[in-house]
Design goal:
Length: 332
């Protein structure tokens, strides 16, 4: 995914095999067909059997509204977790987290220059592990002024070891009109595949609604979880109405949700949507919302990454179960 220019998005959004990375294709036994995109009809019976056995094809994916390209519903954030010193004791668990993420089919990695040095850490580790082509990268511009924004985005791309970025976002709506002009130009030049804006403050929801009405965006990023549901009132419906993808930040409420369930067993009815850990309970609530494209939890623990990616498989709660989950969490 780090070629000089992006391929044309797949015409068939339901065709999941088109979205396997080279590394995943090799793991699936597709060897000679490792260059993507490729049609599943080209896979031999043996490769298809190996594909089913790995479970990569069983990942829950969502189509990006503006293109039809599908991405897994669980990605990875880098806020706090990748903001570390260049010391092996801090890098070692992140190296394993990134490796585990990709091995389990993850692709979407979100960062920001605000999270310094997360972009550089993620880029260096991905290069070291040979995973640059496996990642669908989202980052942000977070400064004022066109020239400053251009310089910051160039630096981000260098730190992430990318000649282009799948998604560039205006972080927290800072100087949003100025930066969206640049983002639109760079998208037309092929430097970005998608553009968008981010916001995690309910005070700025009206401004985000206005941008959704007035601008041609591919994505928004907004906070949404069982503990922070305000964006579901107007922002998520507006995004769905406008055909805009949604990345979900703060899926665990900034980590504040886990103390509420500490020492508690999952309710028995969590089996109905294949949740085996609290992280999956929380994440499956989010990605069962029809407007949500991908949630981006952050972790520096490989075991927690395995749990998070478990939310990308199995059944999702229906509307009645979602209401039950809300009532359950509110009662804690």
């Amino acid at each position: 995914m780090s070629d000089a220019s992006f391929p044309t998005p797949p015409e068939s959004p339901g065709n999941r095999a088109r979205h396997l990375t080279r590394r995943q294709a090799i793991r699936l036994g597709a060897g000679a067909l490792a260059a993507v995109p490729f049609a599943p009809a080209l896979l031999g019976a043996e490769a298809q059997a190996q594909s089913r056995s790995t479970g990569l094809q069983d990942l829950i994916r969502r189509a990006i509204p503006s293109s039809g390209e599908e991405i897994p519903v669980i990605g990875m954030g880098t806020w706090q977790t990748f903001m570390v010193e260049d010391r092996e004791e801090e890098l070692a668990p992140l190296r394993e987290v990134l490796r585990t993420f990709v091995d389990l089919g993850g692709t979407v990695l979100d960062s920001s220059p605000m999270y310094d040095p997360a972009e550089e850490v993620a880029g260096n580790l991905a290069a070291e592990l040979g995973l640059l082509d496996d990642l669908w990268v989202a980052t942000k511009v977070w400064t004022e002024g066109r020239d400053e924004g251009v310089a910051q985005m160039e630096q981000s791309m260098a730190e992430l070891r990318r000649e282009n970025i799948e998604l560039m976002q205006v972080h927290n709506l800072v100087d949003v009109e100025v930066h969206l002009e640049t983002l639109t130009e760079w998208k037309e030049q092929g430097r970005f595949r998608y553009i968008g804006v981010t916001n995690t403050s309910s005070a700025r929801y009206p401004a985000m609604e206005a941008i959704l009405d007035d601008e041609r965006l591919d994505f928004i990023q907004v906070n949404y979880s069982l503990s922070e549901r305000a964006s579901a009132e107007r922002i998520l419906p507006k995004a769905r109405e406008r055909g805009v993808g949604v990345l979900v930040a703060r899926p665990f409420g900034g980590g504040d949700m886990f103390p509420a369930v500490q020492g508690r067993d999952l309710p028995e009815w969590a089996d109905e949507f294949d949740a085996t850990a609290w992280s999956q309970f929380f994440l499956k609530y989010i990605v069962s919302h029809p407007a949500v494209t991908c949630a981006i939890p952050a972790t520096s623990n490989p075991d927690h990454m395995r749990e998070n990616m478990g939310a990308c498989r199995g059944r999702l709660p229906d509307q009645a179960t979602r209401r039950r989950m809300e009532e359950f969490f509110d009662s804690l």
